[in-house]
UniProtKB/TrEMBL annotation, chain A:
Pfam family, one: MnhB
Name this polypeptide is given: Sodium:proton antiporter
Superkingdom in the source lineage: Bacteria
Family: Belongs to the CPA3 antiporters (TC 2.A.63) subunit B family.
Keywords, in A-Z order: Cell membrane, Membrane, Transmembrane, Transmembrane helix
Taxonomic path: Bacteria, Bacillati, Actinomycetota, Actinomycetes, Kitasatosporales
Subcellular location: Cell membrane
Domain (Na+/H+ antiporter MnhB subunit-related protein): residue spans on this chain: 106-226
Main subcellular location of this protein, as a coarse class: membrane
Topology in the lipid bilayer: Multi-pass membrane protein
Keyword Transmembrane helix attributed: yes
Residues spanning the membrane: 108-129, 135-154, 175-192, 212-233
From TrEMBL, chain B:
Residues annotated as transmembrane: 6-24, 31-48, 54-73
Keywords from the named record: Cell membrane, Membrane, Transmembrane, Transmembrane helix
UniProt signal peptide: none
Record flagged with keyword Transferase: no
Keyword Cytoplasm listed: no
One Gene Ontology CC term in the entry: plasma membrane
Domain MrpA C-terminal/MbhD: 12-78
Source organism: Streptomyces lydicus
Membrane topology term: Multi-pass membrane protein
Protein name: MrpA C-terminal/MbhD domain-containing protein
């Protein structure tokens, strides 16, 4: 394709996008106004199903299929990373040297670790009540484990991080979401319908399937991010493409 | 008008951090600017009353993505160094 033709294709695409964007925007409510047609309906539906956090209700109840797609994107990306960053035949694994950590850093990281872990689990468990949920809490949980790398060293992190188990947990979280959706089919409702009793408003057990879906996402995201970072850290810290091998071959 | 001032400040901060992330060419420095951009975006989301999104943005945009960029840069540089050494030999 010549440069000229490419520019024409680009111009046509941009013009189309601009037209659609303008058409989509003309009838939108004014920014910062008091008229919220979508918001009012979403809040009404959330309250009817006893979910205090409307965002959680939209994500895991009213539009749970969208969230399934988003979760699957993360699952697929982690899978792709695992395949791409695996150890190849011409690479070898060198155990990292134990690093010296300044005492204040070690103290701070060791205090912050349990606190961060607890906050992560809290955010997952309270997804239906307050801002946050499975994704946000899962990321915080995954981050908290890596404080051990900062506090002690890479070998300490590896000891609490059997990557194989986390890969299983990642798949189990993804499967849990699908199975919860399929469980609705058994009751005669549609896929991913909220079929459990709604519970008392503003308590931990409210929202029907919302807290369970949140937990499934929490497991999937926490395990997925641990696996993702494990592959990146392995490549950066442990795996070297073997110049030593070739030196030993004695050319 | 007065109530939209914080949002405007947030937008300006995001614009500055975003422009910075494009203009900085060194990947290591870029990852730090990216982290600042994540922080500015998280603040903007918070001002727009979207704490759920702000929380994800804070975790992913200002911690996870820059870390992954840094680890990749380290790996690539290490590889380049060992390849240079081989050529030298």
């Amino acid at each position: 394709m010549s440069m000229r033709l490419r520019l024409w294709v680009l111009a046509a695409g941009m013009l189309g996008t601009a037209t659609l964007f303008v058409l989509a925007c003309v009838e939108l409510p004014v920014f910062g106004g008091t008229w919220h047609p979508y918001g009012d309906r979403a809040v009404h539906a959330a309250l009817a199903r006893h979910t205090a956090n409307t965002i959680a209700s939209v994500n895991f109840d009213q539009r749970a299929l969208d969230t399934l797609g988003e979760e699957s994107i993360l699952f697929g990306s982690v899978l792709g990373t695992v395949v791409l960053l695996r150890q190849t035949r011409d690479e070898q694994r060198l155990p990292p040297e134990p690093a010296r950590v300044a005492p204040p850093v070690r103290r701070y990281a060791l205090i912050a670790l349990p606190v961060t872990l607890l906050i992560g689990l809290y955010v997952v468990a309270h997804g239906q009540l307050s801002p946050g949920g499975g994704f946000q809490g899962g990321v915080v949980v995954a981050t908290s484990l890596h404080l051990l790398y900062i506090a002690i060293d890479y070998r300490a992190l590896e000891r609490i991080r059997p990557v194989g188990l986390y890969e299983v947990a990642d798949a189990a979280g993804e499967a849990g979401y699908l199975l919860l959706g399929a469980a609705a089919l058994l009751t005669g409702a549609a896929f991913l319908t909220n079929f459990l009793p709604y519970g008392t408003f503003n308590t931990l057990s409210s929202g029907g399937t919302v807290p369970l879906l949140n937990a499934a996402i929490g497991v999937e995201v926490a395990a997925g991010i641990v696996v993702l970072l494990a592959r990146f850290l392995d490549q950066a810290v442990e795996i070297v493409s073997g110049p030593d091998d070739e030196a030993e071959d004695g050319t | 008008m007065a109530e939209s001032v914080p949002v405007l400040i947030g937008l300006v901060l995001v614009a500055i951090a975003g422009t910075g992330a494009v203009l900085v060419r060194d990947p290591v420095r870029q990852s730090f600017v990216l982290s600042l951009l994540g922080l500015a975006l998280a603040a903007l989301f918070l001002l727009l009353q979207a704490p759920d999104v702000a929380l994800s943005q804070l975790a992913v945009g200002s911690a996870l993505t820059p870390l992954m960029v840094l680890l990749s840069v380290r790996k690539v540089r290490r590889k380049a160094r060992s390849e240079r050494r081989e050529e030298h030999e």
